[in-house]
Amino acid sequence: MVQAVPELMTLDEFLDWYPDGYGRYELWNGVVIEMQPTGTHEQVGGFLGVKLGVEIDRLTLPYIIPRQAIVKPLDMDKSGYNPDVIVLDQQALSEEPLWKKRSTVTQGKSVRVIIEVVSTNWRDDYGHKFIDYEALQIPEYWVVDYLGLGGRRYIGVPKQPTFSIYQLIDGEYQVQQFRGNDRILSPAFPELNLTAAQVFAAGL
Q1: Domains of the chain
Q2: Which of 43, 13, 54, 48 is nearest to 30 (CA)?
Q3: What is the pLDDT of residues 66-86, one digit of tens each?
Q4: DSSP conformation letters of the chain
Q5: pLDDT tens column, 106-135
Q6: 162: nearest Cα among 146, 173, 175
Q7: ∠ at Cα 15 (14, 21), nearest 5°?
Q8: How far apart are CA 16 and CA 73, in angstroms?
């Protein structure tokens, strides 16, 4: 899933280096990480992107789902995340200094929903990214653990596929979790008609 490229970079250097149209990379504390997702991982992310795209179109929402975007953590110039799916508020992008030339967002208010599909490096999604996305005040963060890989403290006992939606309330994330035939409840997409099982099935 993850392969390190042995170079230390700033975020600006990383964005200059990033190969256009090829591969997926993130920057972690100056280290370039090549993301190598499995096919089933991509199926789940692609399924969610399509479903949210349909909602955006149906409701004529001013949102976009870019093919790739980098999210810069707060007060840090040596990291940049490349989420599996990100829904951006198109109206807020005019205030993003790095968007037009770098496809990079630096402000939480530009993001409506950010989605990470869990892989073997689940600690990143439940740990580092959770902390950084909360600090950015991104209003909604989905962690889609379709294989039930996360730690028991995050998804309970027994471990099972779990869809977690973290909503920003009074500056902190509060979680609501969905399993099986639970209908996913999203503040950003309140009319979304989708169950956790339907999302997990996309990875089969």
Answers
A1: 37-201 (3.90.1570.10)
A2: 13
A3: 999 999 999 889 999 999 999
A4: -EEEEEEE--HHHHHHHSPTTS-EEEEETTEEEEE---HHHHHHHHHHHHHHHHHHHHTT-SEE--S--EEPPTT-SS-BB--SEEEEEGGGGGG-TTHHHH-EE--GGGEEEEEEE--TTHHIIIIIHHHHHHHTT-SEEEEEETT--S-HHHH-SS---EEEEEEEETTEEEEEEE-TTPBP--SSSTT---BHHHHHHTT-
A5: 999 999 999 999 999 899 999 999 999 999
A6: 146
A7: 115
A8: 18
Which residue, among 144, 77, 72, 84, has the nearest Cα to 110 in the 3D structure?
Answer: 72
